[in-house]
Amino acid sequence: MLLDKGADVNAEGGAYGNALQAASSGGYDQVVQILLDKGADVNAQGGKALQIASFGGYGQVVQILLDKGANVNAQGGTYGNALYEASSQGHDSLVQMLLDKGADVNAEGGYHGNALQIASFGGYGQVVQILLDKGANVNAQGGTYGNALQAASSQGHDSLVQMLLNKGADVNAKGGYHGNALQGADVNAEGGYHGNALQAVSSQGHNSLVQMLLDKGADVNAEGGYHGNALQAASSGGYDQVVQILLDNGADINAQGGFYGGARQAALSGGHDRIVQMLLDRGAIEN
């Protein structure tokens, strides 16, 4: 009715930017079709309508927009591009659709740098597999975590870490907040807030990743980072199982360094009495 009265179908403003984007954000495919039939610009404001629909998982809206000429690789907005948005929410069928329509699997953009990195961060294994099968660069650099391996590691996604390593992820790659790939898988590479890979996963209590790194030759007593070493990081966080694994693998219980000075002090600072007792039982020196 408003359109019949002369309303500008491409008028901009409001929280959604324009009518097409507003309809796309809610998955209203019939409204989207009407707006497009009335001349709505499918690629207005950097193609945000397609990006918004992809983020929401609205497959029918995405299909309509693509059929009307939406640029599948349009860049802009918070998430960078449609493939990134679909990947960020684990919408595997939409990821496949966008790739089949010519989406650049290695397109850069967004907070996490690219689609593979955001899918790895989110733990979306099926999306990661699709992207890799379509030629995603497993070692592409960029974004907050630097690369896909580091993003997966930072969240403790064991199976994805293994998948990425099996696909040739560079264990020595550096970059991002954590400094190198398995800080956040040479597994002893140093740098970043956590100092090294083992310290990063220890600080988050990722038991299986701690064991995986140790099995791959990580130095249990490597120094560096805010906490000084992995044992202190785990002790500070209250992760008694990680502490046990590290001690069983030769961690120096009285090693000094880091913010708290030692593992016992780190455990005390967090009120982790059980870990304090464990450390004392294993030979920690009271000082």
Automatic annotation (TrEMBL):
InterPro entries: Ankyrin_rpt, Ankyrin_rpt-contain_sf. Transmembrane segments: none annotated. Pfam families: Ank_2 (PF12796). Keywords: ANK repeat, Repeat. ANK repeats lie at residues 15-47, 45-77, 78-110, 111-143, 144-176, 193-225, 226-258. PANTHER family: ANKYRIN REPEAT DOMAIN-CONTAINING PROTEIN 29-LIKE, ANKYRIN REPEAT DOMAIN-CONTAINING PROTEIN 39-RELATED. This is Vegetative incompatibility protein het-e-1.
